[in-house]
């Protein structure tokens, strides 16, 4: 049985192993922090009910109106997106890293290599999976009590999406391909530095871990959590802009339409206050630490299980 398992693993291409390891890491990490992700989206998009409730008040409100499953609203779309996203993100990071080393063998060594490869891989993953991120945000934005949902799928004159397929179909009918990529610009502006810095900090911290502790789960969790925390801090306002652009047609508002990343950021700061650009940041800190830590740790563990050769062997 063991020999059969070994022979199967030996015939799986390297990129497929990295794709599988990344997808499993992303899906597992995203599910663990799904309730915090839901709360963060509601704060970022400034739903009236959550503006002054605070974290504990918001938790009670969701529990009362939607029950336990309310904390996981939109998580199906989130996991459906994160598995291919994380798989592409980690796999393309490794591929870009190898390509850059082949093209610039004497220039791109060290942390700069991880920064560049991480940035490119983040942009690649976003372009392939963005519509699912948009759908996840729209589903998470909804506040729906099952008793108030009528047959036509409306509640208080607000359209309710019944699931991933329904939301995808209606979004496409409303705006076509452009509608499915609404808010992608600030996402790309944010993901390039975030993904690059995340990999940069993670790999740089791992290099500084004493040899005896390099395989320690705790060491990997620590490196991953700090990397995610530092990377997210620098790019958070762009995420707020993206979320507000994604749900703009769902929110009843007389404010000017958000168009263009930097213009939208300035407009939000002027109309809603600069603090809005950091709305939900405290929840994000609570969320991003376990998310990044679990993601990196599961990815490295899966690479070992799938017997992905070390970078020294591949490079």
UniProtKB/TrEMBL annotation:
Protein name (database record): Grave disease carrier protein
Cited InterPro entries: GDC-like (IPR002167), MCP (IPR002067), MCP_dom_sf (IPR023395), MCP_transmembrane (IPR018108)
Pfam families: Mito_carr
The gene coding this protein: 11428974
A Gene Ontology term for the protein's cellular component: mitochondrial inner membrane
Keywords attached to this entry: Membrane, Mitochondrion, Mitochondrion inner membrane, Repeat, Transmembrane, Transport
UniProt xrefs under PROSITE patterns: SOLCAR
Sequence similarity: Belongs to the mitochondrial carrier (TC 2.A.29) family.
Per-repeat ranges for Solcar: 13-99, 109-208, 215-305
Subcellular location: Mitochondrion inner membrane
Source taxon at top rank: Eukaryota
Gene3D superfamilies named among the record's database cross-references: Mitochondrial carrier domain
Membrane topology listed for this record: Multi-pass membrane protein
GO BP, sorted A to Z: transmembrane transport
Major localisation: mitochondrion
């Amino acid at each position: 049985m063991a020999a059969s398992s070994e022979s199967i693993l030996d015939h799986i291409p390297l990129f497929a192993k990295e794709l599988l390891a990344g997808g499993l890491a992303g899906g597992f990490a995203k599910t663990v922090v799904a309730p915090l992700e839901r709360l963060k989206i509601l704060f970022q998009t400034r739903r009236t009910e959550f503006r002054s409730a605070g974290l504990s008040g918001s938790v009670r409100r969701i529990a009362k109106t939607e029950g336990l499953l309310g904390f996981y609203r939109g998580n199906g779309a989130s996991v459906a997106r994160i598995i291919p996203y994380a798989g592409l993100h980690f796999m393309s990071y490794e591929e870009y890293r190898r390509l850059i080393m082949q093209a610039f063998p004497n220039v791109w060594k060290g942390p700069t290599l991880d920064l560049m490869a991480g940035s490119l891989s983040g942009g690649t993953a976003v372009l392939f999976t963005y519509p699912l991120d948009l759908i996840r945000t729209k589903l998470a934005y909804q506040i729906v009590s099952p008793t108030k949902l009528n047959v036509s799928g409306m509640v208080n004159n607000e359209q309710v999406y019944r699931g991933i397929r329904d939301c995808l179909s209606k979004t496409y009918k409303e705006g076509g391909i452009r509608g499915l990529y609404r808010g992608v610009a600030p996402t790309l502006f944010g993901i390039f530095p975030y993904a690059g810095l995340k990999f940069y900090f993670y790999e740089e911290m791992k290099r500084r871990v004493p040899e005896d502790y390099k395989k320690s789960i705790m060491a990997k969790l620590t490196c991953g959590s700090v990397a995610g925390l530092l990377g997210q801090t620098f790019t958070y306002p762009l995420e707020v802009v993206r979320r507000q652009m994604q749900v703009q047609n769902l929110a009843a508002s007389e404010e000017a339409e958000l168009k263009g990343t930097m213009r939208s950021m300035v407009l939000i700061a002027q109309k809603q206050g600069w603090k809005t650009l950091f709305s939900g940041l405290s929840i994000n800190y609570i969320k991003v630490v376990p998310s990044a830590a679990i993601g990196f740790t599961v990815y490295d563990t899966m690479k070992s299980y799938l017997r992905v050769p070390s970078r020294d062997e591949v490079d």
